[in-house]
Specification:
With 291 residues, the protein is an alpha+beta fold. The protein contains 5 helices and 15 strands. It has helices at 24-35, 49-72, 79-92, 160-177, 186-199; strands spanning 96-97, 110-113, 116-118, 133-142, 145-154, 203-204, 210-212, 219-223, 240-243, 246-248, 254-256, 264-266, 272-274, 277-281, 286-290. The longest helix is centred in the first third of the chain and has 24 residues, at 49-72.
Amino acid sequence: MAGKISRNSPCWCGSGRKYKICHEAFDHKIAQYARNGHMVPTHDMIKNPEQIEKIKESCKINIAVLDYIEQNIQEGWDTAKIDQIVYDMTTDMGGIPAPLNYEGYPYSVCTSVNDQVCHGFPSKDVILQSGDIINVDCSTILNGFFSDSSRMFCIGDVDPEAKRLVDVTKESMYKGLEEVKPWAFLGDMGQAVNDCAKEHGYSVVREVGGHGVGIEFHEEPFVSYVTKRGEEMLLVPGMIFTIEPMINMGKPDIFIDQDNDWEIYTDDGSLSAQWEIMVLVTEDGNEVLCY
Ligand code: MF3
Ligand code: CO
């Protein structure tokens, strides 16, 4: 990927500096990993400071929407109300809910309750009851830049076993986050998530995962949590991706609702939890951009 650029030409990153004093050594380092058989990021997965600033502005809306829901969600709400709040708040702040019409998705947010793994449709018929656990997954487009994060909420009196699933899922996400640093591998993160889930007797969904994000809603790489340390893509500064494990109390198997081709449930009917953050690989570690 480096070969063709003249050393005195402007760098591909958009800094305006000459390639030889900007990303040349960086590209050589990456190429060395590729020669050693590792998957490595392409230039379009590496965001520059201007792009990162704009992505952060998008994240502010996403965070504000989830903060509001966190402070107000309660027993008796139907999930269509959450959809309306997300739409109204996002557009009031100048954004667009990214899920709306994305590959035909018909709502502004995903609301996944109990044994729903992800992509739950908001509905007037889904009324939150004491004991429910729910994931609210928000994504925003602002000035063409994408943000994406989700949180779990416990409604009323939640069974301690369900609460533990919610807490361990969050813990596993942060265990994964600890592994995110330049010149580490995505598999380091994946294994940390998986080990944490397994230690607690839970299983990790294999078919759905995280993704690069920022310029598009879903970019490469695919971010799995059933991967091994030292494997998967090399991490370098400027990459942005989500950590969003879905963890089941029972078996890892899932099924997709055949009526709408979106909503995903656990096959065995066991509870499932998910948290999602957006993380930037920095020069010396990572920065959480969205939560
Ligand atoms: N927000 C989800 C994610 O974390 C994407 C849902 S796809 C949608 O990647 F179409 F439902 F928006
Ligand atoms: Co996501």
